[in-house]
Amino acid sequence: MRSRLKALAPTAHAVLIAAAVVALGWATPLYARELWRTLPAAAALPEPKAFGYAPHDGAQIYYAVYGAGTPVVLLHGGLANGHYWGDQVPALVKAGYRPILIDSRGHGRSTRDARPFTYELMASDVVAVMDRLSIRKAAVMGWSDGAIIGLVMAMKSPERVSRVFAFAANMDPSGVKPDTESNPTFARFEGEAARAYADQSSTPTGFPAFHAAISKMWDTEPNYTAADLARIHTPVAIADGDHDEAIKRAHTEYLARSVPGAVLVILPNVSHFAMLQNPAEFNAAVLAFLRGGAGEHP
Predict the structure, then answer these.
(1) Are the C-beta atoms of residues 289 and 265 closer than 8 Å to each other?
(2) Which CATH number is associated with domain 3-290?
(3) Per the confidence metrics, is the pTM higher than 0.85?
């Protein structure tokens, strides 16, 4: 099946990209299912070309590098880890990119110190990994908290970021739906995140404290205004699924209006976990943006 993203008439600051799937495609089993209600497991990651830790500001930040070519930093969502990108890494490598997976501080294999989580602190960790790998500038593909970190980098370290594909971001707490954590799909994700934390973390019994610290950050951060967003001049795609459990659609559209020249990408039949629910559509949208276009893609 082939689908297309078609640009509609631009507004002052954004182009709305909607997935217009051919009529035959909607009859296939993929679109007959309510994908947004599912939470498939990510594919297993291939063996990395290199991996290690970057020491930074009281933490050891884990990274893994795949492929060769233009670097793309992949930043996962809150409570998660780099393994969630198992369906994206091979597609990026095949397209000639060098994916760099980073576990945010306290997540996955990365450690943390006792200070509170902040998005700006985690953005500085990404820069530290790039420095360790001698990468001057990279594209960023972020999901949820990772998307926020990518946008923070575009504001605070624009010389290090070539493009940001920001999926399911909020830039102030009002953008989050109040019933997010009681949503069945999101609740299942949190349960799976707890099990993964126990498997990967150097503090395997520490998930309750970790979850409490992340929840506190979610309640109080980020706090950026439209004026802050207007100072971003890095090419940005503001993306989300049309059934996101966590992020308000109006907030996503507000972000796209507020970031100069941003592209708004809404993927059909998927939610906050689109990269798992429909990897082909998600990857095609990412690759179209990384290649510099907002037009058609396979």
Answers:
(1) yes
(2) 3.40.50.1820
(3) yes
